[in-house]
Amino acid sequence: MKLMIATAAATLTLAGAAFAESHAGSGDAAAGETEFNKCKSCHMIVADDGTEIVKGGRTGPNLYGIIGRQAGSVEDFRYGDSLVAAGEAGLVWDEETFVAYVQDPRGFLREYLEDDGARSKMSYRLRSGMEDVYAYLVSVGPDSGS
Ligand code: HEC
């Protein structure tokens, strides 16, 4: 009997963790906030109402609400043709695509578009902590519930 209760409790805990994971991914948002220092020379995070979550550069698009959004679709940003083409072909930023892209933007676009001539205006490559940055961007996004 004791064992059954323990098993049930463990199952519940796992279900809760899986639920949180499906929303925020597997990363650590607090670690991702620190990691984002590598991005902010080119990317700001500014909410639709103008609230500056992270002051940053303008070389890249505003990353507010980027998760769940079609690639290459931030208004008024002049993207490279390949990223726009990928978005039009159906690329949406979720954990899998985001993690792959930030490790190697050009390589990712070449693979996604099946085009060895594809180019990226983002040449920066993140080597580690991709999941953490993803979790951070979710946590400061419009659907974070906070
Ligand atoms: C040196 C400047 C630079 C740095 C550093 C940089 N980026 Fe970018 N990023 C860009 C540019 C420019 C683009 C637009 C790419 C294009 O149009 O091909 C971009 C595009 C993106 C996109 C696609 C956005 C969209 O609207 O589809 C994501 C996601 C992204 N960057 C994430 C990151 C993250 C996360 C970091 C930090 C780990 C980072 N970038 C660091 C310049 C940069």
UniProtKB/TrEMBL annotation:
Keywords: Heme, Iron, Metal-binding, Signal
InterPro entries given in the database record: Cyt_c-like_dom, Cyt_c-like_dom_sf
Matches recorded under PROSITE patterns: CYTC
Cytochrome c domain location: 27-141
Signal peptide: 1-20
Domain of life: Bacteria
One term of GO molecular function: heme binding
Name of the molecule in the record: Cytochrome c
